[in-house]
Amino acid sequence: MSRASSLFFPLILAVAAVSGCHAGATTPTKPVAGFVTDMEAFDAFIATKPTPEQFHLAYPDVLLVTPGTMTTREMRQNNSRYFPKMDAEGRIVGGSFM
Fold it and tell me: Where does the secretion signal sit in this chain (predicted)?
């Protein structure tokens, strides 16, 4: 039994070390084409507190209107323009479509 545990112990340590490297990483999401239609999935994505870069990767067709971005004020009903609320670290923590 000590032979088996001496073989598996280094393997377990290696797996633990590699999995620890990805502790803060987020899994890449498949980009959503078009505008937001699945609000449940969108809300779940926003709950992960994405950065603006992560938002653009996940929803490339949705205009993210961050503070300082100039935009027109026409009313859109198709969830194509998102005005985020940002935390102190610059992550999206909420917002609304307009």
Answer: 1-23
